[in-house]
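Human: I'm a chemist; would you kindly supply sequence and structure tokens for a protein?

Assistant:
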Amino acid sequence: MKNNEKRSAGSALFTAIALFGSYISSTAVTASKYILKAIGVVLKALWHLTDRFRQWLISHLKKLGLVLLKAFIRARKAINKPFDDAKAEKEANGGRLSFGTALNLTNHILFGKHGVFVILFNIAVPVISVFFLFSVIAYSVSLNYAVKLSVNGRFLGYIENEQVFLDAQEVLRDRVSYLGSDITIDAVPSYSIEQIGSADTLTKYQIADLVLQNSGVSLDYGYGFYINDTFYGALMDYTNVRDTLDDLLKKHKTNNPSEVVEFVDEIRYDEAGLYLTDSVIDEKWLIDLLTGTKRSASYYTVEYGDSIYSVMETVNKTESELEAMNPGITETELHVGDKIKYSEEIPFLSVSITRTEVYNVPSQYDTETYSDNTIYEGSSREMRKGVYGENRVTADVTYVNGVEVGRNITDVTVLSKPVNQIIAIGVKPTPAGTFIGSTAAYGKLIWPVRGGYISEWTAWDGGYRGHVGIDIAGMGWGDPVYAGASGVVTYAGWNGQLGNYVEIYHPDLGISSGYAHNSAIYVYVGQQVAQGECISGAGATGTAYGTHVHLTVKVNGGYVNPRAYLDYSGHRVPYNP
């Protein structure tokens, strides 16, 4: 009874195993069909524009799928027969399967000609072969070839190419050519190509270290310090030097977020390596050098008889250059012993600052002219003052040691447009060559205009401070101005605040008379004029308010009170001091 129960249990187990195997095989075949169908759909969608190629690809994929599934199909067919036999026996024995039949079925499923292990072996062998092939290819690709480097007959290592050693020679040259050094180290290379597998190659810094190690000189480990690729020496630690230079830059920084503050010179701390012991420099010495100056400011000491012009010639500087270094120097009187700066101090490390600046600048107006027959020819009158416009400018401005060296304008916005100046040009025939028949007391100048009156006395007579002439007003723009006495014209042209200015030397009187603010000038330098001859037209050019003649008198080049030389009898004058 017990034996029958054991056989029944064994039969049930083997039946379950057989059914499981059949299920796996059926599932694999079914899944493969769905996979192939999905592949076909994807390929059809991707290649719908190339029908011929798609059909070719699908057909070959089907063939490939059949080849891959051939083993499974054969296995299913082979397994189905033992399953059918086992099923028939089970039905004949009233639902029982003999132990021998179950064992035979299991053996056939696992180790049969088309069993599980045989199928797995058939699949594993190609997979392992492909893996081995790719491993061989990968190994072949990973093989490296490098240049074997020997220096002075001693093997150092491998490098990627000969350029690496040439770069190493530059590093080596920098390390031994510190300031004041005349040391040279010979490094004669030899090369050969070798297969090195996955071995590392040397960098230029490693090569420099190895050459120095083999040179027999005293070495220390440190960091090279360079300015514009010039090796100043090696530092054991560059932290303090770097912090000092950072602080130096911070002193020049403002709150402008756009500014870039940097040294004009390129400063470099080289990679840590071996350096000659003699090239190691003192940290404090280097900091003092970097924070010092290349050149101190130079000064000229004023001597007796010096003027700003003689100083300019002595120090070979222009007036604007001296003014920039000595604000106000061109407007002050020089005294013996005064110090005048003519060259600026230059720091050892110049600092460049570039920042974005926004500022307003005037825009130039144009001048329009038209002819006016009410104004004497050669004269003109401003009918409308020109008004400058205003632009807002955005620019990147660069300063070196506080002096501007570049300005790149990035944007200009018009805030207001300029108003053009309008000038009336006289076309009325000039009275040049005409005379006035006035006479004057002996040794005096005649009244220089027709009519008019004295509107302002000189400073000597109570006029405003610095007023060295008599102002005669009461005439129209362009009215004739006459020579106070005969003489030779010594000045005829524009003269700053005096505007259009004429000066005449009168040899008979030993004086010079000047006529300022003219609207037009009718004479020229060197011309002989007679007393009462028309020399100009009255105006208000230069610094003047209203049309008038500013009359001056000079004796030996110095201004004197013209009241003593002008015959103003019969003309209205202000209170006579």
About this structure: The longest helix spans residues 2-46. The first strand starts at residue 145 and ends at 151. The radius of gyration is 54 Å. Residues 393 and 412 are 5 Å apart (CA to CA).
